[in-house]
Amino acid sequence: MTMKTALITGSTSGIGEGIARVLAAKNYNIVLNGFGNKKAIKELQSDLEKGGVGVFYSDADMSKPRQIKKMIDGAVKKFGRLDLLVNNAGIQHVDNIEDFPAEKWDAVLTVNLSSAFHTIQSAIPYMKKQGFGRIINIASAHGLVASAKKSAYVAAKHGIIGLTKVVALETAEMDITCNSICPGWVLTPLVQNQIDAIAKNDGISIKEAEVKLLSEKQPSKQFTTVDQIGELVAYLAGDTAKNITGSAISVDGGWTAQ
Fold it and tell me: What angle do CA 183, 102, 71 make, to 5 degrees?
């Protein structure tokens, strides 16, 4: 049986790493991408390989279209196919509109939105040739609703959902699907750092700090885990979900139901 290959952008930490771990456990070859400590990336690669899958790391800069194409082509050269593309790479900057630096706006749009266009553009021909493909874009609750001071992020994530719909329509008669996942608060190391800071600054327990962070937006007052996002990616990549395409699936504890 031919092993499937998944490429996950921004997968050296956080949500992307969680998705990579779930997919590796389900026997996907993995293409990792992202920045970070080289030793930690090597350890992640070795950890994933323990399950018997192939792992390839690309340090492609998601703001550089040529590097993105080289990464996609390299993945296919390494594993012979590309079955699943997960666009997860993202950056953030928070500021009022009038104070938002133009270069930060451009950077957020480039990494959070344009990079997905470039990965999809390079991946689609391979998926068409092999007669199968799954594209999953990690959007956000902010792809459906807004928050103050996040103009670039909100614009980019709304754009990702629009891009998802277009790709879904263009591939609707093929065994290629394109969907968006829209998480609310996900418990990642970066978010844990925020919780720890709240607990320290306010003199409250970690649990109380979690509730304080969640209460403003997420009615369930529970974090989504990276494993839960990974399992949803795996489901959408499978045959059971072959008629789910163009969807924006919320995983936000009721955030966007309000």
Answer: 55
The Cα 85–Cα 5 span in angstroms is 9
* Tens digit of each residue's pLDDT (9 = 90 or more) over 48-71: 999 999 999 999 999 999 999 999
Rounded CA separation 121/230 (Å): 24
Q: How far is CA 215 from CA 146, 204, 207, 218, 219, in A?
A: 16, 15, 12, 6, 7
**SS3 state of residue 136:** strand
CA 248, 9, 21, 220 torsion-angle sign: negative
DSSP 3-state of 138 = strand
Q: Where are the domains of the chain?
A: 5-185+223-257, 187-222
Q: How far is CA 74 from CA 47, 70, 126, 179, 237, in A?
A: 22, 6, 12, 24, 21
What string of H, E and C letters represents the secondary structure of 74-117? HHHHHHCCCCEEEECCCCCCCCCHHHCCHHHHHHHHHHHHHHHH
Task: Single out the residue of 35, 77, 87 nearest to residue 54, CA to CA.
Answer: 77
The pLDDT tens digits of the residues spanning 124-178 come to 999 999 999 999 999 999 999 999 999 999 999 999 999 999 999 999 999 999 9
Taking the C-alpha atoms of residue 175 and residue 244, their distance in angstroms, rounded to an integer, is 11
Architecture category of domain 5-185+223-257 in CATH: 3-Layer(aba) Sandwich (3.40)
**Active-site annotation, residues:** 153
